C-alpha cells in the first residue's frame, strides 16, 4: 500500500491545492496556471509503477518512478510542442494510481510517456539526446515518445519531432529506469517531403553491450525492426546515415519499443 499525494505549487512553492490517498489519488484543481507552477507527486514508496495524469488533455502516462516527481507546467515556446488544450483554462483533473501486477507485466509499448520532461527526472521512460535542433521544444527528444505519430509535416503540435540540427553524430537515448524485455522496435521517421531527408540506415545500441543495424526506406509508414528478445535498461539510436538527397533534415517523429517489464 503506497500513500500518494498530488500537489500543485506556485513558483514560490506555496501550495495551491493538494490531495492524498492510498494507492490512488485524484485532484481537481480550479486554478489558472501561471509560469513557475508545478505539479508534484509524492509517494512513501519508491521504485513503483504508476498511472500518472498531470493534465486531462495530456492523458494517462504509465510510468516507473524512483522518487517524488515534479512536473513543471510549460509556458511560451515550451508549450507549442503540445496540444493547445493542455494545461489551459481554470479547471484541471489530475490523478495517480499504483499499477496492478497484470498491468505491469503485459506486453506493450514500453517507450510511451506523454508526461516526459526536458530535464533529468526520476520518471521513466525518459528520452534524451546529444543534440536538438536550435534547442526548440518542437525538436526535443521527448517528442519521440509522446504517442503522437503524425509525421507528414514539421514544427508545432501535432508535428513535433526529434530534430538533429543536421549533426552527423546525433544520437538519442531512451532510458527505461529498470530492466525490461524487448523484442520489437518501431520507428516513425518524419516524412515532410521534399523538406525532409530520411535515414537509409540506423544503428541501435543496447545496454547489454550489443548493437544492431537496420536499413530504412523513404516512407511515412512505420519501420518495424524485430530484435531477439533481450533484457535491457536503455537503448540508443545512433549512426544515422542520411540518404543522398538535397534536404539536410532527417528527423524522428516517434519510437516505440515493444516488450514487457522484467519481474
From TrEMBL:
Q: Which residues form a coiled coil?
A: none
Q: Can you tell which superkingdom this protein's organism belongs to?
A: Bacteria
Q: Which InterPro entries match?
A: DUF7402, Galactose-bd-like_sf
Residue stretches making up the DUF7402 domain: 127-237
What is the protein name for this chain?
Answer: Carbohydrate-binding protein
